[in-house]
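Hey,
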Amino acid sequence: MPKLKTHRGAAKRFTFTGSGKIKRNKAFKNHILTKKSAKQKRNLGKSGLVDKSDHKRVVDMLPNN
């Protein structure tokens, strides 16, 4: 069976934690920021975790981890 290639777009967006969870960045902090509150923008800057329903899909794109 041939080697699996890593999905490069996914590799740039996701990182694994020590316990095996997947960290991600939050969306909606790129433009149109004037109508968003300071609290919302501050919380969008923090990282989140990939939901368990999407976990397998992300792991399949990152075979070398």
